[in-house]
Amino acid sequence: MNDGAIRIIGGYQTDFSRNLTKEGLDVGDLTREVVEGTLADAGIEPADVEVVHVGNAFGQLFTGQGHLGAMPASVVPELWGVPATRHEGACASGSLALLAAMAELEAGRYNCALVLGVELERTVPGDTGAQHMGAAAWVGHEGSDARFMWPYMFSAIADEYDRRYGLDEQHLWSIAELGARNAALNPLAQTRGWERTAASFSADPIANPPVEGRLRKADCGPLTDGAAGVVLVRPDHPAARVGRNAPNQSAVLGWGHRTVGLSLADKLSRSADDPYVAPHVRHTIGDAFARAGISGVDDLDLIETHDCFTVSEYLAIDHFGITPPGESWRAVESGDLEIDGRIPVNPSGGLLGVGHPVGATGIRMLLDCHRQVTGRAGANQVTDAHRAATLNFGGSTSTTVSFVIGN
């Protein structure tokens, strides 16, 4: 373990299958649960927390509640007076909160940070929820003829893969099927109890109906209520020193963060002569690898990646270097992505299976990697996992973050 690396000493995820509105609960209740659960797992008290960072993307739209940096102190009085900030970067909001917390710890401002991601999305009908999430696109400049903004946009990314390299939808549905199988093992996954058949991952118009463009139901992640949290500390913090050899401690070995423009058309135009559909995503991953001191994907034991749609994971496969550009299908067909494969991808079930409470997703990914490398992933455990990576992006990959986690 890098002696200078920020440590993860504990974390917590809520059950993503819950509908908090139907339970009569709100974002304050969700925040209280994740704060208390995260601190308990880390073995610290609220008084040990010196700064709080909160990832949330669409709070005002789904709940009417803004100013969520102040919510932890509102529901856990012991955090009254602790500095806190909310971060918004669409689906990458949680990862941005993590980066901000790490920067403050590395700068020496604080020694112990509580990082939370919270999101309620099941407060409205599905059509309305999809409209709310369209705010992460370039409003008024793209997607004007879309019924559902994000299936429309990621269908366009699938079209670009098809244009450049060819694309078989069955490979996308195989990604969805693997996510469903992994999620069925995960006691916190939103879809763990969903009943699906082989037809659910086929061109069957009833079992897998079209949604937008070339994407169907199986290609699209669900709306989710949920939260995740972690405690980060400096390596010289007492919790890090005392628990130096403890099995529940991991370290952030490397990170990458890049931002490009909102427009998908601009992204695809700029990458037209590049072998990668989204070269800035490839560069973000490369930055994380370089900071972690690893040479490539074969130095990893698993990946938790952003699969809001099946084509998102398809893109991640070649951008991580699991296959050459445009050949992600090879990893799908070979079984490389299985929990016992060459490089397991989304052993948790991913966004498609676990769920996607937008502001929490980046933190949930980091937490699942932490659990994997500390041997605490239960039925989803990858054997002998020592090093893992995340890839989290917002919008049509406008904001991209990657972390490398090790034990």
Q: How would you describe this structure to a colleague?
A:
- The protein has 407 residues and is an alpha/beta fold.
- The chain has 14 helices and eleven strands.
- The longest helix is centred in the middle third of the chain and has 17 residues, at 149-165.
- It is globular and about 55 Å long.
Largest sheet: 9 strands, mixed
* Unreliable sequence segments: none
Tally of strands:
11
Distance between the first and last residues' Cα: 6 Å
Oligomer: single chain
The overall average pLDDT, rounded, is 96
Q: What class do helices, strands and sheet pairing give?
A: alpha/beta
The SSE string, one letter per element, is EHEHHEHEHHHEEEHEHHEHHHHEE
Report Rg: 20 Å
Shape: globular
Strand order of the largest sheet: 3-2-4-7-1-8-11-10-9
Question: Strand fraction band?
Answer: 15-25%
Number of helices: 14
Helix content estimate: 25-40%
Short account of what is shown:
With 407 residues, the protein is an alpha/beta fold. 35% of the residues lie in helices and 17% in strands. The strands form 2 sheets. It has a 9-stranded mixed beta sheet with strand order 3-2-4-7-1-8-11-10-9, with helices on both faces. A two-stranded antiparallel ribbon has the order 5-6.
Keywords:
single chain; 407 residues; alpha/beta; nine-stranded mixed sheet; 35% helix; 17% strand; globular
Topology of this structure?
Blueprint: E1 6-13, H1 27-42, E2 51-55, H2 59-63, H3 71-75, E3 84-87, H4 93-107, E4 112-119, H5 126-133, H6 149-165, H7 169-183, E5 210-212, E6 215-216, E7 226-233, H8 238-242, E8 250-259, H9 264-270, H10 279-292, E9 302-305, H11 310-319, H12 328-334, H13 350-354, H14 361-373, E10 387-394, E11 399-406
Parallel strand pairs: 2-3, 2-4, 9-10
Antiparallel strand pairs: 1-7, 1-8, 4-7, 5-6, 8-11, 10-11
